[in-house]
Design goal:
single chain; 3 helices; about 120 residues; mainly alpha
Amino acid sequence: MMQIVLQSILGVILSIGGVYLMYLYLTTINSSSNIVLLIGSLALLGVAVFLFIRAGKSDKMFISKMPPIKPLEDPDANAPSLESRLQKNSAMLGDWKKTNETKDRLRMLEISAAAESSPES
């Protein structure tokens, strides 16, 4: 974990250094174009990106210890509760269908009432 933090900090320092060298190159481009500053800044930024990618892909950062996997329980033991859950779901689905049908009928009545009350041309 400490190695990941150090790589990240080093990546930040190198990226700041690369941006600073790029700034120096851009400010001296009119007077004397120093290509060494450009190459150095690109190299520092490249190494910083490499360190960021390497630190970001580390498994140690996200997984410290896998929890033990519990085996599934016997499905026959929960059979009565599964059947009752299925019945409850079916009842809720039926209520939902009734609600949607009622909503559709009310919408049609509203549309027909609005059509009857509007003046015809």
